[in-house]
Automatic annotation (TrEMBL):
Pfam families linked to this entry: Cu-oxidase, Cu-oxidase_2, Cu-oxidase_3
SUPFAM superfamilies: Cupredoxins (SSF49503)
Reaction catalysis annotation: 4 L-ascorbate + O2 = 4 monodehydro-L-ascorbate radical + 2 H2O
Obligatory cofactor(s): Cu cation
Protein family: Belongs to the multicopper oxidase family.
Keyword Transmembrane annotated: no
Entry GO MF terms: copper ion binding; L-ascorbate oxidase activity
Superkingdom to which the source organism belongs: Eukaryota
Quaternary data: Dimer.
Compartment(s) where it occurs, according to its Swiss-Prot or TrEMBL record: Secreted
Organism, scientific name: Morella rubra (Chinese bayberry)
Protein name as catalogued: L-ascorbate oxidase
Occurrences of domain Plastocyanin-like (ranges): 10-130, 145-301, 402-528
Length: 552
């Protein structure tokens, strides 16, 4: 195992990923940022200098469990104080000592975990390959990666202000979809100083393939809002990896992908090689008003930017939830890599997902609690017993299951903002049932991709437009070959059931990966085995009550 050292400067920069010039947050001048490559067991060191002159930053390593280094998780207010302007912070972690038996070579992500800086463009890939001599359960000749993003022209500061104002200002649908940081916006009505269709920065991404080649394509999404369907015209894809876990292979024409998910698919370049093909990304799950995201599947030696002779597909119907659900249900652990979950759980937490108003402000809540983050990071206040740093009354494990009608609009007048956390027994098995419901709009329930820090969980089952039945639904759980993931969708009016072993000491956030939803409180924080966490580095301190630890 070796150590990879990276020096990052996080700064503002004007970017035109879809031809429209906009202020973005960049790493070493780039958005998406540089890809981190490593082998399983290697150590990554990122020396991050915050060159943003007017705001803090923190960066999360999405899917990396941070075993033994919970303070490197990069979650502001949970595991560290934010990095202040001008400061340098060193993230150091291993990818990944395996504590459970599941392997961790695979496809991961990183992104900002502060304010709305993911939406502003701070994101990228972490690609972890298997150690030398270890074989993967599939073969390919070439390894390529594609990161998906939705892109907004409004400043993220205005977006954040709208979300926390009366009247409420929703961010709306994105202006474009980016494939490897490139998209297209119709500039025809705008001045070329603002939007220039000829800017090479926004010429579509082109993936060059050799005829007959076998490709592993790693696809990750760090969308702010949009779920997408991804397609390569005329080519089927075989899904083989999900969130760093091997999948029992299945073939599909289009891949649904939510923010925070990663997949590897195998693609064979076996079509008519005299032409190019469209790679497309389309919004699903919400009524789209964003044009199709385009890239080119380029057969060598055709010109990279030669347009395919066809009209790009607009993909499957945005509201075909059944087909999205069918994909989720098709994702099972590869038969040689099955790690069966414990047959029983020690505790069940049912989380009702609702939209609410608190004092006239819109929020998202779980069991009538909307998450607000404290000034002192939980990891530090728990280790130091700063009992006053956050609300000590734990949030509820369930809601009024009997009486709550998930199909109607509720005022949920008892909802409060809270920074209380769940305390979960170390090395125990917990079932989490995510229960969807109607939002504050009649006849509307949204898809939420839920992401857990510090753990992979087993995906035990999905409910299709129903309330979870405590007696009968657990009988249908897949305890034989469930996939392990770190991000999973919750579909409209449905439920999603997870099982997790709390085997990683620390404090972890579990939240909706839609950045504006997290901003509006859609998450919970839990602690397990925090007393087993080693000595905290001073570098994570300096805010809230931790000031007195560094300047006694
Ligand atoms: Cu990728 Cu807490 O997020
Ligand atoms: Cu959400």
């Amino acid at each position: 195992a070796v150590t990879h050292r990276h020096k990052w400067e996080v700064n503002y920069g004007y970017k035109s990923p879809d031809c429209y010039k906009k202020l973005a947050i960049t790493i070493n001048g780039e958005s998406p940022g540089p890809t981190i490559h490593a082998q399983q067991g290697d150590t990554i060191v990122v020396e991050l200098n915050n060159a943003l002159f007017s705001e803090n930053v923190a960066v999360h390593w999405h899917g990396i469990r941070q075993i033994g280094t919970p303070w490197s998780d990069g979650t502001e207010a949970v595991t560290q104080c934010p990095i202040m302007p001008g400061d340098t912070f060193i993230y150091k972690f291993v990818v990944d000592k395996s504590n459970t038996m599941n392997m961790q070579a695979g496809t991961y992500l990183y992104h900002a975990h502060y304010g709305m800086q993911l939406t502003a463009g701070l994101y990228g890939f972490i690609i972890v390959s298997v150690p030398d001599g270890v074989l993967e359960p599939f073969v390919y000749d070439h390894d390529r990666s594609i990161i998906l993003k939705d892109w907004y022209h409004a400043s993220t500061y205005e977006q954040a202000t709208g979300l926390s104002s009366i009247p409420f200002g929703w961010v709306g649908e994105p202006q474009s979809l980016l494939i490897n940081g490139k998209g297209r916006f119709n500039c025809s009505l705008l001045d070329s100083s603002v939007c220039n269709a000829k800017n090479p920065e926004c010429s579509p991404y082109s993936l060059t393939v050799v005829p007959g080649g076998r490709y592993r394509l790693r696809i990750g999404s760090l969308a702010s809002l949009s779920a997408m369907s991804f397609e390569i015209e005329g080519h089927n894809m075989t899904v083989v990896e999900a969130d760093g876990n091997y999948v029992e292979p299945f073939e599909t024409k289009h891949l649904y992908i939510n923010s925070g998910e990663t997949y590897s698919v195998l693609v064979k370049a076996d079509q008519d090689s005299s032409r190019n093909y469209w790679i497309t990304a389309n919004v699903v799950g919400r009524k789209p008003s964003t044009p199709t995201g385009l890239a080119i599947f380029n057969y060598y030696p055709n010109h990279r930017h030669k347009k395919p002779p066809t009209v790009p597909t607009t993909g499957p119907l945005w509201n075909d939830t059944a087909s999205q659900l069918a994909q989720s249900r098709a994702i099972k652990a590869h038969h040689d890599f099955v790690h069966s979950p414990p047959p029983r759980s020690d505790r069940m937490i049912v989380l009702l997902n609702t939209q609410n108003k608190i004092n006239g402000y819109y929020h998202w809540s779980l069991n009538n609690r909307s998450l607000t983050l404290p000034a002192t990071p939980y990891l530090i206040s728990l280790k130091q017993n700063f009992n006053g740093a956050f609300d000590q009354n734990p949030p509820p494990d369930s809601y009024d299951v009997e009486n709550y009608d998930i199909y109607s609009v509720h005022d949920n007048v008892n909802t409060t903002s809270s920074n209380a956390i769940y305390s979960i027994k170390f090395n125990s098995t917990v079932d989490i049932i995510l229960q969807n419901a109607n939002s504050m709009t009649t006849g509307n329930s949204e898809t939420h991709p839920w992401h857990m820090h510090g753990h992979d969980f087993w995906v035990l089952g999905f409910g299709n437009g129903t309330k979870f039945d405590m007696v009968n639904d657990p009988k249908g759980f897949n305890l034989v070959n469930p996939i392990m993931k770190n991000t999973v969708p919750l579909y409209p009016y449905g439920w999603t059931a997870l099982r997790v072993r709390t085997d990683n000491p620390g404090v972890w956030i579990f939240h909706c990966h839609i950045e504006p939803h997290l901003f509006m409180g859609m998450g919970i924080v839990f602690e397990a085995g925090v007393e087993k966490v080693g000595k905290l580095p001073k570098s994570i301190m300096g805010c809230g009550e931790t000031k007195r630890l560094i300047n006694p």
